[in-house]
Amino acid sequence: DAGVTQSPTHLIKTRGQQVTLRCSPKSGHDTVSWYQQALGQGPQFIFQYYEEEERQRGNFPDRFSGHQFPNYSSELNVNALLLGDSALYLCASSSQGGAGETQYFGPGTRLLVL
Amino acid sequence: QKEVEQNSGPLSVPEGAIASLNCTYSDRGSQSFFWYRQYSGKSPELIMSIYSNGDKEDGRFTAQLNKASQYVSLLIRDSQPSDSATYLCALEGAGGFKTIFGAGTRLFVKA
Q1: Is residue B82 less than 8 Å (CB to CB) from chain A?
Q2: Digit-coded pLDDT (tens) for B40-51
């Protein structure tokens, strides 16, 4: 039973560029949430996708966008990268994603913006 | 005021001792609370979830919730060096689909 997978594992970009991160949920899960974790901080909720729609969004600018595919996998896109976007980006999957549902995190993508 | 507050630590305890990790939160409407463990360079993993006032035990771990005081804690009995990690307190945020995390408490268990 494959867990949550993310790609790539590491990424280096320069300011102003665009980046796409990918996530495949755990088998049987249909909901994907994305988080940003800066060094020394807890994960910050970016948004959640369910049934190919953005269901809830955190306090992130429109430069952060996403997509969910019919197979439940998801992408996170960040445009016009800033130095402050350097962080670990975590994907978490769950079943229906409601209150109290257990989330399983992927290994993350470490993004460095120079 | 932050939504979830934790002492950043580090908290250092000897092997075999009880480690006590604390967390306060600001949203009285929160109903679901979680403790995650995160080893350095790894992703968070869920240790405990708690929804009702009182204690919930799972092996060496006990979560305690006091909604009136807006306080959640995690006790780790018989602490082992392998318990050394950052412990993240989290709760269900407004809207019901997002999880709000604290900044975490670093725990060191000395052999």
Answers
A1: no
A2: 999 999 999 999
